[in-house]
């Protein structure tokens, strides 16, 4: 009987590991191997830093739909990074080529999804779009300066970008401004050119899918009005692998409840492994971004799964022991 339940429990544990760690890598490889037919020949961004601490953004995107017809484009602007919140507002859009340019917004996970187009009309060929919006709470105040780090061109675009230009305009002289291009965390420097004391242009060509440009600006303290950063409370950040792992844990609980459970030591081991996963996930967020940065990520969900299975094994073992004790007392 023990072997009959121990086998499914072990198989469930192996399946958890495969779901959490192996399948996302396979999905990423499959996504990376796809060759997009569409492209963005030119992408121009103007970041205007207001004295009120708000960043005013104007994006001019030339999108080539190739031969396929689409209903428009989708731009994803982050309103949340970890526990940091941004106020993205005043979204508007237009098109110089006559393409439908109605802007619709929807919050999806950590991004504000801006859909530009018309659900009832398809567009083809090369079209030009202009998207404008404002971003508040984007500057981070420090003791001796105020800093802006912003993805001027995000990495959510799944098509290549031919030529990209990002212009930063400021009401005060720009002395410390840099740009990095590539995938998230890349260190490739963009080609920069100063246009006087108050503006800097950065250029980058041949951006691959899911590559972008990130700008960092440091301004003297009190040069502009900077509002305090806004932070969110802990949130659910797990993706489908972590959620699936948690669901499999419930299946394992049902399996453990239907028969004789494994040894008590196995349950304690599963619970301990789960607790370690939860602690490691929380520690990464908290140590990096502060006590409010903890989120329920995939490692936390996998840890909860193991804790649930371990608790079910321990509870089943106790119930079995109690049943044997009751049977012995009845025979006595």
UniProtKB/TrEMBL annotation:
Keywords: Membrane, Signal, Transmembrane, Transmembrane helix. Residues 1-27 form the signal peptide. The chain crosses the membrane at residues 236-256, 268-287, 293-314. Residues 39-217 form the DUF2207 domain. Pfam families: DUF2207. InterPro entries: DUF2207 (IPR018702). This is DUF2207 domain-containing protein. It comes from Actinomadura napierensis.
